[in-house]
Structures are given as structure tokens and as C-alpha cells.
Design brief:
Elements: E1 3-13, E2 33-42, E3 45-51, E4 64-68, E5 72-76, E6 78-83, H1 92-99, H2 104-109, H3 113-122, H4 126-142, E7 145-151, H5 158-174, E8 178-186, H6 197-214, E9 220-225, H7 232-244, E10 248-253, H8 261-267, E11 272-275, H9 281-288, E12 293-296, H10 298-304, H11 311-316, E13 322-323, H12 337-348, H13 352-359, H14 361-366, E14 384-389, H15 395-398, E15 405-410, E16 413-414
Parallel strand pairs: 1-4, 1-5, 6-7, 7-8, 8-9, 9-10, 10-11, 11-12, 12-13
Antiparallel strand pairs: 1-2, 2-3, 5-14, 14-15, 15-16
Bound molecules: N-(iminomethyl)-L-glutamic acid and fe (iii) ion.
């Protein structure tokens, strides 16, 4: 049995005695912590924690590793519930196009964007895709991510989508991070099907989904529901085909236009609706009546220079909010969760407590793993990080770009 004790913790953050599903609205301002704390882990699972003063002591010291965390804080790892980290090549030429005045939509229209990534992926081997994605996983691990959702969507052909999903499956098997796979075959309309959209959707439903089912290649199903991509009707057809084989829906909506995607997500019990840069009042009212997690991606707004989602309006209307990176080669070439927290504080005017809730407990909800991740609670997986000596929780989003993490613990073991 492997055992770990972290003692003298300056502040143990996001502790729960009775685990919650998520935190909502005004509750998000409260972040439960224990000062001067200890935490015990056995075989990768949190078994107990409390105040140093009330520590009953450990009875069996055999094989126990002890970390003295004086002056340091302990957090549950971030859950990054929205990424596209399997891709063939970076797209900095589009970054330069945008500097020179083109918009994301204009670049997509001239063959850039998602279709550009899809073209590059067709000629890239499964092995190369795996090795590049592996490096990205190692990178996000260093900035505190302990669980990550990874989407397909740069294949846009039967062969390409399955290749991506098989890479994600291999990453799942080999990585210390917790990984969930999301099938996003409906990410763009492939060039070949421009005049026959239904033909491509039929291909997703009749060719891809049955193989995904037989090889257990995905946990979720996603669609980019947006003007020039998939209509709400098309999105619903795809989501329902996924639901029929047991996939849970998540959906890209309201990045550039509000066209009814949120309502499709709600109607089909999506776990989350993601992006939400452009929100109508009706969208907010409909979300209030649902259990769907609104997921915001501030580093996408930062990188593309598009509006920031109205996070304050959502939270002040009583909704929960989740924060994720959207790590992908086109709209967010970064998987840095601490930077996302800083952007959310600065641009969304979320408080440090709100951004920690949004990236831990609420993010675990958006990944469907809130029973095992997202907080410090007995029985949850010991995916944590120990900070360097820092002055307060707010120091983390405040000191943007600096590395505040000292020790990473995944599955109860030191991972750096
Ligand atoms: O979430 N919005 C759609 N998909 C990605 C961008 C994909 C790309 O440009 O490669 C996103 O931002
Ligand atoms: Fe995305």
C-alpha cells in the first residue's frame, strides 16, 4: 500500500465534507479551505484531512512518505473540460493573417481554420499524433491540470476521426492524467461535402458512430453549432445519434452568433454548453431552468480578440460557470489553466474564489467526473498540486504567467 502524508499545509483549498455536484451563482464566491492542515492519501485516494491541531496522528508509519508543506498551499488539480489537443500542426500563419486584419471567419472561408487542420491530419501518422499530443499533456500537467477532456474533430472523414479517437484512447491508457474522449466529427463541413451536408452527417451517423460504439472510442459527443458550421437541427440529429449509443452530449455554441444551439443542448441534456461569447437574455433564462454547465473559454477570446463571455451576468443570474482552455491550434494554442484563471479575473471580473470553483468542482461536473475529482474530499482521487510559498489564493491569478507550482501529485504519487 502506498501512503502519503502532507503536513503543515498553510491552506488546504476546496475542501468538502459532503461533496457537492457543483457550485452555483452567489455560492461561487465561497471557497472552503482549512488553514494549517494535513492531508492523507492511500493508494491514490484521499483518505482523510483536517487541522494540524486536531491531528489524531498516524498509527502505521510503514512505507509512509511525508511532505512538509510549510508556507505552501494544496489545491485539487484543475480539470480542463474542453480541449482539442490532438492535432497535426500549429497554425501560426493564421495568427499572422489576423494581425494583418483578417477575422477568424474570413480565414476559415479561404480554406484556413478547422479545414486546414483536417488537411494536415490526413497525412499524419497515428504515432506522430500521439507523440505530439503526449508533449502537450506533459506541458499542461506542469501548470496544474490533472484531468482533461480531448475532442476529435480534425479528421472530418471516417478514417481521420477514428485515427484521432484511437490516439485519444491510447493517451487515456498511458497517461497519469484522467482523460475523457469527445467525438466531434461535426466540427466543420468537409470541403468534399460542401454541396451535400446531409451526406456528411449521414456518414457520421451511419459509418463513424457504429465503429465508435464497437471500439468504445468516446465518452461524449459534440457539435460546433454555429453560423457557417452546423445548424441547430443538424446538431440535434448528430447529438441524438450519439446519445443512442450511450455518449453524453456537450456542444460548442454561441461563439459568434446565437442561433438556438443552447436550446438544443438543454433539450438533449447536454453536460455543458461551451463558448457563450454571444448571449441573448433568452439563452440565460433557458439555462437557469436546466442542469447544463455553462463553460467559458477566456483564452479563446484573448487570442482571437473576440468579445469575452458575459460571465458576471451568468453568475449574477444564479448560474454556475466552468472555465476551460479550449487548447487547439486555431483559436487557443495554449492549455495553461492558471492563465485562464487570470483572464477570467481580469476580463470577466470573477473573483479568485469564483475562478477556483469554476476550474475545479464545476469543471469536474462539466467532465462528468465530479464524484472522483474537483475537490479535496474523502474517497476522491488524489490529483493535487502543492504550491511554492505563496501569500494568498488571490496571488495565483494575480501573478499571471509566473509558475507557482512546486509539486504535482497524480494518483497519489509525485508526478514531477
Ligand atoms: O473551440 N469553435 C470551434 N472549434 C475550436 C477552434 C478550432 C480551430 O480553429 O481549429 C474552438 O474554438
Ligand atoms: Fe472548442
Amino acid at each position: 500500500m502506498s501512503k502519503l502524508l502532507i503536513k503543515n499545509i498553510k491552506e488546504l483549498v476546496q475542501v468538502e465534507s459532503t461533496p457537492k455536484e457543483n457550485v452555483t451563482g452567489a455560492e461561487m464566491k465561497a471557497l472552503p479551505t482549512i488553514k494549517d492542515a494535513w492531508l492523507a492519501v492511500e493508494d491514490g485516494i484521499i483518505v482523510d484531512f483536517g487541522e494540524m491541531d486536531e491531528w489524531g496522528g498516524i498509527t502505521d508509519w510503514s512505507d509512509l512518505e511525508v511532505i512538509d508543506a510549510s508556507g505552501q498551499m494544496v489545491f485539487p488539480s484543475f480539470c480542463d473540460s474542453h480541449t482539442h489537443i490532438v492535432y497535426a500542426a500549429s497554425r501560426e500563419e493564421e495568427f499572422v493573417d489576423r494581425i494583418n486584419g483578417l477575422t477568424y471567419e474570413e480565414i476559415a472561408k479561404k480554406g484556413g481554420g478547422i479545414l486546414n487542420s483536417a488537411k494536415k491530419l490526413q497525412n499524419t501518422s497515428e504515432e506522430d499524433l500521439f507523440n505530439d499530443a503526449w508533449k502537450r499533456l506533459e506541458e499542461i500537467k506542469k501548470t496544474g491540470t490533472g484531468a482533461v477532456e480531448i475532442k476529435s474533430g480534425y479528421g472530418l472523414s471516417v478514417e481521420g476521426e477514428l485515427k484521432m479517437l484511437r490516439v485519444i484512447k491510447k493517451l487515456k491508457e498511458k497517461s497519469e492524467l484522467t482523460i475523457k474522449a469527445n467525438f466531434l466529427g461535426a466540427h466543420a463541413i468537409p470541403t468534399k461535402y460542401k454541396q451535400n451536408r446531409k451526406g456528411y452527417i449521414d456518414l457520421i451517423i451511419n459509418e463513424m458512430i457504429p465503429i465508435i460504439k464497437s471500439e468504445s472510442l468516446a465518452d461524449y459527443i459534440d457539435v460546433f453549432c454555429e453560423t457557417n458550421y452546423y445548424t441547430p437541427e443538424e446538431a440535434e440529429r448528430v447529438l441524438q445519434a450519439g446519445i443512442a449509443i450511450g455518449l453524453i452530449p456537450k456542444i460548442h455554441v454561441n461563439q459568434f452568433t446565437s442561433i438556438g444551439g443552447i436550446q438544443v443542448g438543454i433539450k438533449n441534456n447536454a453536460l455543458s454548453v461551451d463558448h457563450l461569447e454571444v448571449m441573448e437574455e433568452q439563452d440565460i433564462q433557458d439555462l437557469i431552468k436546466s442542469d447544463v454547465m455553462p463553460t467559458l473559454l477566456p483564452s479563446c477570446s484573448f487570442f482571437l480578440g473576440i468579445p469575452y463571455a458575459p460571465a458576471r451576468r451568468l453568475i449574477d443570474s444564479g448560474l454556475p460557470v466552468c472555465l476551460a482552455t479550449d487548447f487547439n491550434p486555431g483559436s487557443t494554442p495554449s492549455g495553461n489553466m492558471p492563465f485562464v484563471l487570470s483572464l477570467a479575473c481580469i476580463n470577466y471580473k470573477m473573483t479568485p474564489e469564483e475562478v477556483v470553483n469554476a476550474s475545479t468542482i464545476n469543471a469536474s461536473y462539466a467532465m462528468g467526473i465530479n464524484k472522483t475529482h474537483g475537490s479535496i474530499a474523502i474517497g476522491k482521487k488524489a490529483n493535487l498540486f502543492i504550491t511554492k510559498e505563496i501569500s494568498s489564493i488571490a496571488f495565483i491569478p494575480y501573478s499571471f504567467g509566473s509558475n507557482f507550482i512546486k509539486t504535482i501529485i497524480l494518483n497519489g504519487k509525485i508526478a514531477n
